[in-house]
Specification:
With 375 residues, the protein is α/β, with parallel strands linked by helices. The chain has a single domain, classed as Alpha-Beta Barrel (TIM Barrel), CATH 3.20.20. 48% of the residues are buried. It binds iron/sulfur cluster (SF4).
Length: 375
Amino acid sequence: MSASLSNKLSAWPESRIRDVYAGVTQEAVEAAITRERRTVSDLIALLSPQAVPLLETMAREAQRLTRRQFGRTICLYAPLYLSNVCAANCIYCGFAASAPVEQPRTTLSREEIERECEALAAMGYKSILLLTGDAPTVAPPEYIAEACAIARRWFPSVAVEVYAMDETEYALLCDHGLEGVTLYMETYDHDTYAAMHRHGRKRDYLYRLNALERAAAAGGRRVSIGSLLGLYDWRMEAVWLGLHGRHLQQHAWKTALSISFPRLRHTPPHFEIPCPVSDAALVQMMLAMRLFLPEVGMNLSTREPAALRDRLVRLGVTAISAGSSTRPGGYGAPECNTTAQFEIEDTRTPEQVVAMIRASGYDPVWKDFDDAFLE
Ligand code: SF4
């Protein structure tokens, strides 16, 4: 029987990773850059401080690998927040149940979902990401399935970023047109995970860890992983994230994998980011991940500022959001004052982002596959 993801992560505890980091030499980094198929030790070498002087070389290799796999295409997608109600209490999040919000919480009705879809379709989007908090009594799987069905009438590609579900619940969503599932582990470190998620269903580390394998087994065609950068040492998280990615490549091989790099920036006033991640660290992590997992898509959201996104488009990113709103109703009724999950950094319109992509020598892609492909 093949090893579970949990066993694979357990085989790389922090102490073992730190030992490998301690032994990395510049020669090891150079060898990791030139190798065709990279090992976990290579990944650690690429993430190490010894790799910093070689970032330019890594960037060239990342660009070569990305163009080989994806050509010069950058997909565009938009988040659509269905609800900002949440029963969980992730202490870093503006949607948390105990977060002192001044603006109303809401869950969109059918009509409001239609209005959001219409507004996003008018902006040109073909790929949409539906989001909710962790509140299955307010936004149960049946509600999310109905939202998928509505969105599917407007967009050829519909994904969700919602709470972790059972396989049958993911199957229900797939039956209603779901194509992809995004679910961040937030942090792979057990102690930090427990400290950040003190109440509710989200406390169950293993249930969340294995969710995307369930989504793939239920028929999800795309899954996206990530850790919330800033909660724990990024040089540890990146290794565990790479292990997660490689595990999914082996065990959910019919499902396309992508990785997101959400970086904590604007958090509630009471929460200080424990392990801030610099721009340079984010760039190194993305380059190392591209070299370790050359076939996976890499997503970058409007959490990141415009200047940094412009640089990263040339270095391995394959999908970006644009013109995003993180509040329910934010597209169809822009004047609405519902609570937003976080403030976005890149406030450019989709047209401006498309122009940037073209000016960088890449092709913006609104739709990356045909319905016939699914049949
Ligand atoms: S991160 Fe998700 S589950 Fe946690 S409080 Fe925010 S919306 Fe809720």
